[in-house]
Amino acid sequence: MREAACDFFPDFDAHNHIEGTSPKEWVMERHHYHAMAFLSRAYHFQWSRWNTTAGSRNIIMQLREAVDTKREGKFQLLHVTPQRATILKCIELSQEFNTEPVVGLQFYPDLFTLNMYYGSVDARRVTFNMKYKLVETVFDMLQELKLCSYS
Questions:
Q1: What is the per-residue pLDDT for 15?
Q2: Any idea which GO molecular function terms this record carries (predicted)?
Q3: Rounded-to-integer distance, Cα 93 and Cα 121, Å
Q4: What is the spatial distance between Cα 86 and Cα 84, in angstroms, rounded to a whole number?
């Protein structure tokens, strides 16, 4: 894409030159991008204003299911750390950020596992029908764009 003049991929030191970025821990970010790639046909992911101030060991983003019509309407806040992934009680429009998870939510080590237990049957089915080439292509795009660090 760079050769076609679509150069929106940040260089490795771009966070030093751009204000308002929040570089994330690279191992956590890479693992999260893999999970997002697997779930890319089952969920919509969206930027959150809370991500910039979350620090390097926290990723805050919005997500909603794209395949289940009952869950499709509302975005929920997702909080990912190196240890766990949770859906938060607060929403994007809340006055204060609170890391308290939704009542009754168990421990899930990452976004993929969260989908396997918390997601709908349709979301799980779509996830297991993903083609390897599509997952790797989406992952490569996410890895190059570094959306969690630059949004």
A1: 52
A2: beta-tubulin binding; microtubule binding
A3: 29
A4: 7
* Torsion of Cα atoms, 79 then 81 then 85 then 90, to 10°: -20
Query: Average pLDDT, stretch 142-147?
Result: 83
Please provide residue 79's backbone torsions phi and psi, each rounded to the nearest 5 degrees: -115, 120
State the DSSP string of the chain. Answer: -GGGT---PPPTTGGGTSTT--PPPHHHHHHHHHHHHHTTTTEEEE--TTSTTS-TT-EEEEEEESS-TTTSS--EEEEE-SS-EEEBSS-TT-SS---PBPTT----SSHHHHHHHHS-HHHHHHHHT--HHHHHHHHHHHHHHTHHHH-
- Return d(Cα 35, Cα 17) in angstroms, integer: 29
Taking only the tens place, the pLDDT of each residue in 49-99 is 898 888 889 999 999 988 877 766 788 999 999 999 999 999 888 889 889
pTM for the model stands at 0.84
